[in-house]
Amino acid sequence: MPPVITVNHLSKYYQDIKAVDDISFTVNKGDVYGFLGQNGAGKSTTIRMLLTLIQPTAGTIEIFGMDIRKHREEILRQVGAVIERPDLYKYLSALENLRLFAKLSGLKLSDTQLMLQLERVDLHQRAHSKVHTFSQGMKQRLGIAVALVHDPQLVILDEPTNGLDPQGIADIRQLIVELSREHGKTVLVSSHLLNEIELTATRMIIINKGKKMAEGALKEMFDPSKMLIELRVANPDHTLQQLQQSVWKSLLVQQEANLFTIRMNETDIPRLIADLVSMGVAINSLQPRHSLEAYFLSLTTSNQHVDHPAN
C-alpha cells in the first residue's frame, strides 16, 4: 500500500528567501503525522503546497499515489483541511454552517447526518447556537467538522490549537487522536507546540529554517540510554556525598543547589530510586528531562540532520 503523502525534494523560494528548502517526507495511512517547527520554519508554506494553494519552486507531491499536479481535483475531494483559524459564518448556527459547506461541496446530506458530524466534534448540543457565541476552541472544533463534512481520507490541520485555552487545547488533542484511532483518518497536524505533538503524533518531521532536521516514529527518535533525570532533594549535601560514593557518580551531570541532573538509561530509574531511598536521600521530585523539547532544541541549535526508519 503506497503512503498517503509522498513529498520529494520540495522547495519554495521567494526571491532570495528559501521558505522551504529541499524537504522530503512520507505520511503513511493511519498516521497522526506531526509537522513540527518554530514559527517561520516553513510548515504553513509546505501545507499550502500540499493543498495547491501555492505552487512549489521545485520538487514533487503525491497524495494517494497520484501526482497533485495531474490529479488535483480527484485528490482534494478526499482531503479536509483547516488552515489556521477556520472561516465560518458567525451569524449562522453551527448546523447552518455545516449545511452550507456541505452544499458548497456538492453534497446532499440530511440534518441527521450533519448532526452526527457535530456529535463527532462534541458540538451537537450547540447545533442551533450562532457561531459568534462560540469560544475559540468551539470554533476550531466546528472548523474541523466542516473539514470532515465530505468524509475525507486525509485531514490536514495547520496550528489547530493556536490561541486556545488549556481546555480547548485538550479538546482538540483528543479529537485528533479519535480521528485516527476511531475513524480511520490519516491526520497531518502542524504545530510549534512541542508538547502537543509529543502527545498526539505517531510519526513526525522536524523542520527548521525550511530544512528537514529529522523524521521518524517518536519512539525511535529518543535514545532511552541518554535520558536526563532531574532529581530535586531536601538534603543536597548528604545527597552529593552519597552519590559520589555510589555507582551513580559517573552519571552525575551537574548539581545546582538542591537540583541534581543525572544522565542514565530510563530502565534504571527504579534502581536509582531504590538506591536513593537506602542512602537516606529525601526526594522532593524526580522527573525525566529528555523530552521532545530537548531533542528539538538539540537539532535546531546544532543543525544536525537525522533520518529514522519508518514503521
UniProtKB/TrEMBL annotation:
InterPro entries: AAA+_ATPase (IPR003593), ABC_transporter-like_ATP-bd (IPR003439), ABC_transporter-like_CS (IPR017871), P-loop_NTPase (IPR027417). It holds the Pfam family ABC_tran. Signal peptide: none annotated. GO terms for molecular function: ATP binding; ATP hydrolysis activity. Residues 5-234 form the ABC transporter domain. Keywords: ATP-binding, Nucleotide-binding, Transport. Belongs to the ABC transporter superfamily. This is ABC-2 type transport system ATP-binding protein. The lineage of its organism: Bacteria, Pseudomonadati, Bacteroidota, Chitinophagia, Chitinophagales.
